[in-house]
Amino acid sequence: MPIQVLLVEDNPGDVELTRIALEDSKISVNLNVVEDGVEAMAFLRKQDKYADAPHPDIVLLDLNLPKKDGREVLAEIKTDDHFKRIPVVVLTTSQAEEDILRAYNLAANCYIAKPVDFDQFVRIVQSIENFWFAIVKLPPE
After folding, report:
1. What is the largest distance, in Å, between two alpha-carbon atoms of the chain?
2. Closest to 60 (Cα-Cα) out of 12, 135, 17, 9
3. pTM for this model (two decimals)
4. CA-to-CA distance for 73 and 48, rounded, in angstroms?
5. Coil, strand, or helix at residue 63?
6. Which pairing describes strands 88-92 and 3-8: parallel, antiparallel, or unpaired?
7. d(CA 86, CA 110)
8. Quick one: residue 48, left, alpha or beta (phi over 0 = left, psi -120 to 50 = alpha)?
9. Which of 24-33, 34-43, 44-53, 77-86 has the lowest mean pLDDT?
10. Which positions ≥6 away from 42 have C-beta within 8 Å?
11. Distance of alpha carbon 40 from its chain centroid, rounded?
């Protein structure tokens, strides 16, 4: 059964880089993509067009999103009994200490600053994949 990944990212280039990085996976991964925080919560809650959405095993979350930012999404996920055990990896351009502290205070499972270099970005996504999908035991749905 494939690992269900929810990527919450509004930058089409970063979505494509993530897709490319996961393509060579030895593990079966199903990448689900939403572009903003409102869509992310609709996906998780299986609302509207997401009625048949799979339960994600992990969320890759950008902080700087339209409509509802990643900090709000993280807070909602981690305070909801149905979602709080889903690992959330913050994957964002911000390296601000304030953002890092706030993300961990909101119970992010880890915080990774996106590199600007293509090869480094691919290596980071593959490292996330190796750690979270091959080493870590994920909670059941």
Report:
1. 38
2. 9
3. 0.89
4. 18
5. coil
6. unpaired
7. 12
8. left
9. 24-33
10. 34, 48, 49, 50
11. 10
12, burial (CB in 10 Å: exposed 0-12, middle 13-18, buried 19+):
exposed
Query: Cα(29)–Cα(81) distance, rounded to whole angstroms?
Result: 25
Under a CB-based contact definition with an 8 Å cutoff, are residues 91 and 60 in contact?
A: yes
Q: What is the pLDDT of residue 124?
A: 84
**Comparing 63 with 24, which gets the higher pLDDT?**
63
DSSP 2-26: PEEEEEE---HHHHHHHHHHHHT-S
| Residue ranges with strand state E in 62-109 | 88-92
Give the tens place of pLDDT for each residue, 4-39: 899 999 999 889 888 888 887 777 888 999 999 999
Q: What's the CA gap between 95 and 33, in Å, rounded?
A: 23
Residue 37 and residue 67 in contact, taking contact as beta carbons nearer than 8 Å: yes
For residues 64 and 36, what is the distance between their CA atoms, to the nearest angstrom? 9
